[in-house]
Protein backbone atom coordinates (compact mmCIF):
# COMPACT_ATOMS: atom_id res chain seq x y z
CA UNK A 1 0.00 0.00 0.00
CA UNK A 2 1.12 3.55 -0.66
CA UNK A 3 0.29 6.35 1.72
CA UNK A 4 0.11 10.10 1.59
CA UNK A 5 0.60 12.91 4.07
CA UNK A 6 -1.84 13.92 6.78
CA UNK A 7 -3.54 17.00 5.35
CA UNK A 8 -7.21 17.61 4.49
CA UNK A 9 -6.80 17.13 0.75
CA UNK A 10 -4.10 14.44 0.91
CA UNK A 11 -1.94 15.93 -1.81
CA UNK A 12 1.63 15.86 -0.60
CA UNK A 13 3.79 13.07 -2.00
CA UNK A 14 7.06 11.49 -1.00
CA UNK A 15 8.67 8.07 -0.80
CA UNK A 16 8.75 5.22 -3.30
CA UNK A 17 6.11 3.31 -5.18
CA UNK A 18 6.23 -0.02 -7.03
CA UNK A 19 4.20 -0.19 -10.23
CA UNK A 20 4.53 -3.42 -12.14
CA UNK A 21 8.20 -4.28 -12.53
CA UNK A 22 9.34 -0.71 -12.11
CA UNK A 23 10.12 1.30 -9.00
CA UNK A 24 9.39 5.01 -9.15
CA UNK A 25 11.30 7.00 -6.57
CA UNK A 26 9.60 10.31 -5.90
CA UNK A 27 12.40 11.25 -3.56
CA UNK A 28 15.56 9.82 -5.16
CA UNK A 29 17.82 12.02 -3.07
CA UNK A 30 16.12 12.98 0.19
CA UNK A 31 18.47 15.87 0.83
CA UNK A 32 18.41 17.34 -2.68
CA UNK A 33 14.65 16.86 -3.13
CA UNK A 34 13.63 18.05 0.29
CA UNK A 35 11.39 21.08 -0.06
CA UNK A 36 12.88 24.17 1.49
CA UNK A 37 9.78 25.61 3.13
CA UNK A 38 9.51 27.59 6.31
CA UNK A 39 5.93 26.57 7.02
CA UNK A 40 4.02 23.46 6.19
CA UNK A 41 1.21 21.21 7.25
CA UNK A 42 1.58 20.32 10.89
CA UNK A 43 3.30 23.58 11.82
CA UNK A 44 1.92 25.80 14.54
CA UNK A 45 1.10 28.54 12.01
CA UNK A 46 -1.05 26.24 9.91
CA UNK A 47 -2.75 24.79 12.99
CA UNK A 48 -3.74 28.33 14.00
CA UNK A 49 -4.97 29.11 10.46
CA UNK A 50 -7.13 25.97 10.44
CA UNK A 51 -8.71 27.00 13.74
CA UNK A 52 -9.30 30.55 12.49
CA UNK A 53 -11.01 29.22 9.35
CA UNK A 54 -13.04 26.86 11.53
CA UNK A 55 -14.22 29.68 13.80
CA UNK A 56 -15.03 32.07 10.95
CA UNK A 57 -16.75 29.40 8.88
CA UNK A 58 -18.76 28.11 11.83
CA UNK A 59 -19.80 31.60 12.98
CA UNK A 60 -20.87 32.92 9.57
CA UNK A 61 -22.64 29.79 8.38
CA UNK A 62 -24.46 29.16 11.66
CA UNK A 63 -25.90 32.69 11.57
CA UNK A 64 -27.08 32.22 7.99
CA UNK A 65 -28.53 28.81 8.84
CA UNK A 66 -30.32 30.23 11.89
CA UNK A 67 -31.95 33.02 9.86
CA UNK A 68 -32.92 30.71 6.99
CA UNK A 69 -34.46 28.04 9.20
CA UNK A 70 -36.22 30.14 11.84
CA UNK A 71 -36.94 33.51 10.23
CA UNK A 72 -37.73 32.78 6.58
CA UNK A 73 -41.49 32.30 6.24
CA UNK A 74 -41.90 31.66 2.53
CA UNK A 75 -38.96 29.69 1.11
CA UNK A 76 -37.95 29.90 -2.54
CA UNK A 77 -35.61 27.86 -4.73
CA UNK A 78 -32.86 30.35 -3.90
CA UNK A 79 -33.39 29.72 -0.18
CA UNK A 80 -33.09 25.96 -0.76
CA UNK A 81 -29.79 26.36 -2.63
CA UNK A 82 -28.44 28.79 -0.05
CA UNK A 83 -29.43 26.45 2.78
CA UNK A 84 -27.60 23.54 1.15
CA UNK A 85 -24.56 25.71 0.43
CA UNK A 86 -24.45 26.65 4.12
CA UNK A 87 -24.63 22.97 5.12
CA UNK A 88 -21.78 22.17 2.71
CA UNK A 89 -19.61 24.93 4.12
CA UNK A 90 -20.39 23.79 7.66
CA UNK A 91 -19.23 20.27 6.81
CA UNK A 92 -15.96 21.66 5.50
CA UNK A 93 -15.50 23.96 8.48
CA UNK A 94 -16.21 21.40 11.22
CA UNK A 95 -13.74 18.94 9.68
CA UNK A 96 -10.79 21.35 9.91
CA UNK A 97 -9.93 20.95 13.62
CA UNK A 98 -9.87 17.17 13.14
CA UNK A 99 -6.95 17.52 10.72
CA UNK A 100 -4.92 19.37 13.36
CA UNK A 101 -5.27 16.54 15.88
CA UNK A 102 -4.45 12.98 14.88
CA UNK A 103 -7.32 10.51 14.80
CA UNK A 104 -7.09 7.64 17.27
CA UNK A 105 -9.49 5.22 15.59
CA UNK A 106 -10.16 4.09 12.04
CA UNK A 107 -13.92 4.86 12.17
CA UNK A 108 -13.28 8.46 13.22
CA UNK A 109 -10.65 8.76 10.47
CA UNK A 110 -13.11 7.62 7.83
CA UNK A 111 -15.93 9.79 9.21
CA UNK A 112 -13.78 12.94 9.18
CA UNK A 113 -12.53 12.14 5.67
CA UNK A 114 -16.09 11.59 4.45
CA UNK A 115 -17.37 14.82 6.05
CA UNK A 116 -14.56 16.87 4.53
CA UNK A 117 -14.80 15.33 1.04
CA UNK A 118 -18.60 15.69 1.00
CA UNK A 119 -18.41 19.35 1.98
CA UNK A 120 -15.55 19.96 -0.45
CA UNK A 121 -17.38 18.75 -3.57
CA UNK A 122 -20.96 19.70 -2.66
CA UNK A 123 -19.89 23.26 -1.79
CA UNK A 124 -18.36 23.77 -5.22
CA UNK A 125 -21.46 22.35 -6.93
CA UNK A 126 -23.88 24.49 -4.90
CA UNK A 127 -21.93 27.68 -5.63
CA UNK A 128 -22.35 26.83 -9.32
CA UNK A 129 -26.03 26.02 -8.82
CA UNK A 130 -26.52 29.44 -7.20
CA UNK A 131 -25.05 31.00 -10.36
CA UNK A 132 -27.45 29.03 -12.56
CA UNK A 133 -30.35 30.07 -10.33
CA UNK A 134 -29.41 33.75 -10.71
CA UNK A 135 -29.05 33.25 -14.48
CA UNK A 136 -32.62 31.98 -14.81
CA UNK A 137 -33.99 34.62 -12.45
CA UNK A 138 -32.45 37.53 -14.37
CA UNK A 139 -31.68 36.42 -17.94
CA UNK A 140 -34.51 33.91 -18.43
CA UNK A 141 -37.13 35.57 -16.27
CA UNK A 142 -40.10 34.20 -18.24
CA UNK A 143 -38.82 30.61 -18.24
CA UNK A 144 -37.87 31.00 -14.58
CA UNK A 145 -41.53 31.34 -13.65
CA UNK A 146 -41.95 27.68 -14.62
CA UNK A 147 -38.58 26.24 -13.64
CA UNK A 148 -37.67 28.08 -10.42
CA UNK A 149 -40.04 26.16 -8.20
CA UNK A 150 -39.35 24.82 -4.73
CA UNK A 151 -39.65 21.15 -5.64
CA UNK A 152 -37.17 21.53 -8.50
CA UNK A 153 -34.75 23.12 -6.07
CA UNK A 154 -35.14 20.17 -3.68
CA UNK A 155 -34.62 17.65 -6.49
CA UNK A 156 -31.51 19.48 -7.76
CA UNK A 157 -30.10 19.66 -4.21
CA UNK A 158 -30.63 15.95 -3.58
CA UNK A 159 -28.94 15.19 -6.90
CA UNK A 160 -25.92 17.29 -5.93
CA UNK A 161 -25.59 15.50 -2.57
CA UNK A 162 -25.79 12.07 -4.24
CA UNK A 163 -23.14 13.00 -6.84
CA UNK A 164 -20.88 14.41 -4.11
CA UNK A 165 -21.25 11.22 -2.05
CA UNK A 166 -20.29 9.09 -5.04
CA UNK A 167 -17.20 11.19 -5.74
CA UNK A 168 -16.18 11.20 -2.06
CA UNK A 169 -16.63 7.45 -1.52
CA UNK A 170 -13.19 6.30 -2.80
CA UNK A 171 -11.38 8.64 -0.40
CA UNK A 172 -13.40 7.24 2.51
CA UNK A 173 -12.69 3.65 1.45
CA UNK A 174 -8.93 4.23 1.24
CA UNK A 175 -8.69 6.35 4.39
CA UNK A 176 -6.42 4.55 6.86
CA UNK A 177 -4.61 5.18 10.12
CA UNK A 178 -0.83 4.84 10.16
CA UNK A 179 1.36 5.26 13.20
CA UNK A 180 3.39 8.46 13.07
CA UNK A 181 5.26 8.36 16.36
CA UNK A 182 5.53 5.24 18.49
CA UNK A 183 6.59 7.17 21.58
CA UNK A 184 3.68 9.61 21.47
CA UNK A 185 1.25 7.01 20.13
CA UNK A 186 0.09 9.42 17.38
CA UNK A 187 -1.37 8.42 14.03
CA UNK A 188 -1.86 9.85 10.55
CA UNK A 189 -5.26 9.70 8.88
CA UNK A 190 -4.71 9.73 5.12
CA UNK A 191 -5.52 7.85 1.89
CA UNK A 192 -3.56 4.63 1.47
CA UNK A 193 -3.79 3.38 -2.12
CA UNK A 194 -2.81 -0.12 -3.33
CA UNK A 195 0.75 -0.14 -4.70
CA UNK A 196 -0.19 -1.68 -8.04
CA UNK A 197 -2.90 0.91 -8.77
CA UNK A 198 -1.58 3.88 -6.81
CA UNK A 199 -0.83 6.03 -9.84
CA UNK A 200 -4.26 5.36 -11.37
CA UNK A 201 -6.13 6.24 -8.18
CA UNK A 202 -4.03 9.33 -7.52
CA UNK A 203 -4.37 10.64 -11.08
CA UNK A 204 -8.08 9.84 -11.04
CA UNK A 205 -8.58 11.87 -7.87
CA UNK A 206 -6.57 14.80 -9.23
CA UNK A 207 -8.44 14.67 -12.52
CA UNK A 208 -11.79 14.63 -10.68
CA UNK A 209 -10.88 17.72 -8.64
CA UNK A 210 -9.67 19.61 -11.73
CA UNK A 211 -12.73 18.57 -13.73
CA UNK A 212 -15.24 19.61 -11.05
CA UNK A 213 -13.72 23.00 -10.29
CA UNK A 214 -12.00 24.13 -13.50
CA UNK A 215 -13.71 22.34 -16.37
CA UNK A 216 -17.32 22.23 -15.15
CA UNK A 217 -18.10 24.72 -12.39
CA UNK A 218 -15.88 27.65 -13.39
CA UNK A 219 -17.03 27.74 -17.08
CA UNK A 220 -20.68 27.47 -16.00
CA UNK A 221 -20.24 30.33 -13.53
CA UNK A 222 -18.47 32.52 -16.08
CA UNK A 223 -21.18 31.85 -18.68
CA UNK A 224 -24.02 32.63 -16.25
CA UNK A 225 -22.48 35.81 -14.88
CA UNK A 226 -21.41 37.12 -18.30
CA UNK A 227 -25.02 36.76 -19.45
CA UNK A 228 -26.25 38.40 -16.25
CA UNK A 229 -23.72 41.19 -16.70
CA UNK A 230 -24.98 41.90 -20.21
CA UNK A 231 -28.60 42.12 -19.04
CA UNK A 232 -27.82 44.20 -15.95
CA UNK A 233 -25.59 46.63 -17.87
CA UNK A 234 -28.47 47.41 -20.24
CA UNK A 235 -30.95 48.09 -17.47
CA UNK A 236 -31.61 51.48 -15.90
CA UNK A 237 -32.00 50.10 -12.43
CA UNK A 238 -30.54 52.30 -9.71
CA UNK A 239 -28.77 49.26 -8.26
CA UNK A 240 -27.04 48.36 -11.54
CA UNK A 241 -23.54 49.41 -10.50
CA UNK A 242 -23.78 47.53 -7.24
CA UNK A 243 -24.96 44.39 -9.05
CA UNK A 244 -22.07 44.59 -11.54
CA UNK A 245 -19.55 44.91 -8.71
CA UNK A 246 -21.04 41.92 -6.95
CA UNK A 247 -20.85 39.83 -10.12
CA UNK A 248 -17.14 40.51 -10.39
CA UNK A 249 -16.74 39.81 -6.67
CA UNK A 250 -18.37 36.38 -6.91
CA UNK A 251 -16.35 35.27 -9.94
CA UNK A 252 -13.05 36.77 -8.83
CA UNK A 253 -13.22 35.26 -5.35
CA UNK A 254 -14.02 31.84 -6.76
CA UNK A 255 -11.07 32.11 -9.15
CA UNK A 256 -8.70 33.41 -6.46
CA UNK A 257 -9.67 30.66 -4.03
CA UNK A 258 -9.81 27.62 -6.29
CA UNK A 259 -7.61 28.22 -9.33
CA UNK A 260 -4.27 28.25 -7.41
CA UNK A 261 -5.11 24.95 -5.74
CA UNK A 262 -6.19 23.34 -9.00
CA UNK A 263 -3.04 24.54 -10.75
CA UNK A 264 -0.91 22.86 -8.08
CA UNK A 265 -3.01 19.68 -8.37
CA UNK A 266 -2.54 19.75 -12.16
CA UNK A 267 1.23 20.11 -11.74
CA UNK A 268 1.14 17.16 -9.37
CA UNK A 269 -0.60 15.13 -12.07
CA UNK A 270 2.14 16.06 -14.55
CA UNK A 271 4.67 14.89 -11.97
CA UNK A 272 2.89 11.55 -11.68
CA UNK A 273 2.98 11.21 -15.47
CA UNK A 274 6.69 12.17 -15.42
CA UNK A 275 6.15 15.05 -17.84
CA UNK A 276 8.15 17.23 -15.49
CA UNK A 277 11.17 16.47 -13.33
CA UNK A 278 9.89 14.58 -10.22
CA UNK A 279 12.51 16.00 -7.87
CA UNK A 280 12.10 19.65 -8.85
CA UNK A 281 8.32 19.27 -9.01
CA UNK A 282 8.24 17.79 -5.52
CA UNK A 283 10.06 20.81 -4.14
CA UNK A 284 7.66 23.26 -5.74
CA UNK A 285 4.49 21.27 -4.98
CA UNK A 286 5.45 20.57 -1.36
CA UNK A 287 6.08 24.29 -0.80
CA UNK A 288 3.00 25.55 -2.65
CA UNK A 289 0.36 22.97 -1.69
CA UNK A 290 -0.21 23.98 1.98
CA UNK A 291 -0.77 27.61 1.00
CA UNK A 292 -3.00 26.66 -1.94
CA UNK A 293 -5.09 24.45 0.36
CA UNK A 294 -5.53 27.22 2.91
CA UNK A 295 -6.68 29.66 0.21
CA UNK A 296 -9.14 27.10 -1.18
CA UNK A 297 -10.52 26.22 2.26
CA UNK A 298 -11.10 29.89 3.04
CA UNK A 299 -13.94 29.86 0.51
CA UNK A 300 -16.21 28.22 3.09
CA UNK A 301 -15.84 31.40 5.18
CA UNK A 302 -16.37 33.75 2.23
CA UNK A 303 -19.58 32.17 0.94
CA UNK A 304 -21.81 33.45 3.79
CA UNK A 305 -20.54 36.98 3.19
CA UNK A 306 -21.19 36.85 -0.55
CA UNK A 307 -24.50 35.00 -0.67
CA UNK A 308 -26.14 36.14 2.54
CA UNK A 309 -24.76 39.15 4.37
CA UNK A 310 -24.47 41.17 1.16
CA UNK A 311 -27.95 40.04 0.08
CA UNK A 312 -30.50 42.77 0.71
CA UNK A 313 -33.28 40.49 1.92
CA UNK A 314 -31.01 38.63 4.30
CA UNK A 315 -29.56 41.82 5.76
CA UNK A 316 -33.02 43.25 6.35
CA UNK A 317 -34.24 40.02 7.92
CA UNK A 318 -31.20 39.81 10.18
CA UNK A 319 -31.60 43.47 11.15
CA UNK A 320 -35.24 42.86 12.00
CA UNK A 321 -34.39 39.80 14.12
CA UNK A 322 -31.61 41.58 15.99
CA UNK A 323 -33.71 44.72 16.52
CA UNK A 324 -36.49 42.61 18.05
CA UNK A 325 -33.96 40.85 20.29
CA UNK A 326 -32.32 44.05 21.51
CA UNK A 327 -35.66 45.83 21.71
CA UNK A 328 -36.93 43.10 24.01
CA UNK A 329 -33.83 43.44 26.20
CA UNK A 330 -34.04 47.24 26.26
CA UNK A 331 -37.74 47.18 27.12
CA UNK A 332 -36.98 44.91 30.03
CA UNK A 333 -34.61 47.67 31.19
CA UNK A 334 -37.27 50.36 30.73
CA UNK A 335 -36.22 51.58 27.26
CA UNK A 336 -38.53 51.40 24.24
CA UNK A 337 -37.15 50.97 20.72
CA UNK A 338 -39.13 50.72 17.51
CA UNK A 339 -37.74 49.54 14.22
CA UNK A 340 -39.48 48.88 10.95
CA UNK A 341 -38.00 46.74 8.21
CA UNK A 342 -39.36 46.19 4.75
CA UNK A 343 -38.30 42.93 3.14
CA UNK A 344 -40.16 43.26 -0.11
CA UNK A 345 -38.62 42.87 -3.54
CA UNK A 346 -35.21 41.73 -2.43
CA UNK A 347 -33.14 38.62 -2.67
CA UNK A 348 -31.12 36.31 -0.45
CA UNK A 349 -28.26 36.52 -2.91
CA UNK A 350 -26.09 39.36 -4.14
CA UNK A 351 -28.28 39.81 -7.18
UniProtKB/TrEMBL annotation:
Bilayer-crossing regions: 48-69, 81-100, 120-138, 150-174, 212-232, 244-267, 287-310
Location(s), subcellular: Cell membrane
Gene Ontology MF, one: C-C chemokine binding
Keyword Membrane: yes
Residue ranges annotated for the G-protein coupled receptors family 1 profile domain, each copy included: 60-307
PROSITE patterns xrefs: G_PROTEIN_RECEP_F1_1 (PS00237), G_PROTEIN_RECEP_F1_2 (PS50262)
SUPFAM superfamilies: Family A G protein-coupled receptor-like
Pfam families: 7tm_1
Membrane topology: Multi-pass membrane protein
Location (main, coarse): membrane
CDD domains given in the database record: 7tmA_Chemokine_R
An example Gene Ontology biological process: calcium-mediated signaling
Keywords tagged on the record: Cell membrane, G-protein coupled receptor, Membrane, Receptor, Transducer, Transmembrane, Transmembrane helix
One GO CC term on file: external side of plasma membrane
InterPro entries: CCR1-9-like (IPR050119), Chemokine_rcpt (IPR000355), GPCR_Rhodpsn (IPR000276), GPCR_Rhodpsn_7TM (IPR017452)
Family, as annotated: Belongs to the G-protein coupled receptor 1 family.
Name of protein: Si:cabz01093077.1
Annotated source species: Cyprinodon variegatus (Sheepshead minnow)
Organism placement in taxonomy: Eukaryota, Metazoa, Chordata, Craniata, Vertebrata
Amino acid sequence: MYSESNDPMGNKMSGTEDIGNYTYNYDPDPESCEASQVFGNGSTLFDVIYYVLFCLGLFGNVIVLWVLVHHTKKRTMTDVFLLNLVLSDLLTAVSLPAWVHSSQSLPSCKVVTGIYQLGFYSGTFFVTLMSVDRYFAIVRAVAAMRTRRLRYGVIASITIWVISMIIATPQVIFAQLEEEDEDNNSFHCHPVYPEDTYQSWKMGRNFTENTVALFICLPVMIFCYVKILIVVSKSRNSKRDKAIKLIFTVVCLFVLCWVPYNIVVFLQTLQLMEFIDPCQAQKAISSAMPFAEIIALSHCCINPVIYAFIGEKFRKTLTKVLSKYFSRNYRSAGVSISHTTDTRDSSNTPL
